Description:
Layout: H1 5-13, H2 17-21, H3 25-42, H4 67-73, E1 83-90, E2 96-97, E3 105-106, H5 109-122, E4 126-132, H6 151-162, E5 167-172, E6 185-187, E7 190-192, H7 193-210, E8 214-217, H8 224-234, E9 241-248, H9 255-260, H10 282-294, E10 298-302, H11 308-318, E11 322-326, H12 328-339, H13 345-359, E12 363-366, H14 369-378
Parallel strand pairs: 1-4, 1-12, 4-5, 5-8, 8-9, 9-10, 10-11, 11-12
Antiparallel strand pairs: 2-3, 6-7
Ligand PBG binds at residues 171, 173, 175, 183, 218-219, 254, 257, 271, 327-328.
Amino acid sequence: MKWEPVHRFDHATTKNRSQIDSLGHDQALDCLATALARDWQWGKPSGKRDAMPAYPATRMRRLRQADWTRRLVRQHVLTPNDLIWAVIISDQAKPEPVAAMPGVNRLTLTTLREAAIEAQDLGIPAIALFPHIDPAKKDEAGSEALNPDGLIPQAIKVIKQAAPNVGVICDVALDPFTTHGHDGVLKDGVILNDATVDALVEQALVQASAGCDVIAPSDMMDGRIGAIRMALEENGFTDTLILSYAAKYASGFYGPYREAIGSATALTGDKQTYQMDPANTEECLREVELDLEEGADMVMVKPGLPYLDIVKSVSETFGVPTFAFQVSGEYAMIEAAAANGWIDGGRVMLESLMAFKRAGASGIITYFAPRAARLLGEE
Ligand code: PBG
């Protein structure tokens, strides 16, 4: 039963809405007193929430009237502890700007070192690495992903050496390394699931051996979490965490990222045979359930803001650490509007990050991390 305050007025007074509207203040208070007495006599109506007294006994603005009241009743908090910094790295000599992501550069190993120290100083718990691979090193199978001396293993070591208290999260997927830009092994136009899983296990072991703290498979193959977990256990990496991109949708919001890692021109076709259909809700719960059973410690929903319903249902259903990825397209939209003076970029950035917390996310992977942490430090 939905309890409309005005019905309670109607009921208590046998007056209709326009009569109520024309009541004077004292008469309205009398009506309210009568209605409250009836509530008390009859008990609260059954339903999801307790009924609350109507206006003017309740004036919602009382709690919003001053900074101190607002701070006192604030429900969610956003701190640098909630942020994972998404960082693009390349093996080039100089940092290069990513055109579709103003403010984001592909970092070199030297500038990555500075970024790691910056993250540590700002209290950002972890960095997530994404590689831009020299096209000359790409092949059909993405074999550079398995190179123990490749860009990612080197980057892991740089961070661990410069800022030992910053966690390192590595994407497990083949797309930065393949000539066709797909996350898996492609044969006759089909992404082979099990052959891909074999490669992903190797890739994860290379990362764990280099000192990666969190393995984050983003490829959406079936069974890869279980296979990676088993391989980690067998090889003594019993403390290596797995953050599964469990509910990852086939999304247009990844566009700028593909430019950032240089797979935009490479990609043939789309990723709809392995990433989820944006029209589906229930499927995300099955994906998450499987990954948890297979040994994921944490799960991720991706993209972020357009999928807050998914974040909420995953975090409520499973009660496990649930992360959201504010992806490249979300970043680009906010930056583009801010650059045009259409929105206040800093304000919208923090508001969007808070929205993830409200939906139940434990944290957010975001390209905004250092800027957001700095702004939060000023508040
Ligand atoms: C690839 C991967 C993608 C992103 C992270 N890992 C792109 C894709 O699936 O096509 C997107 C990140 C972003 O858009 O910021 N496995």
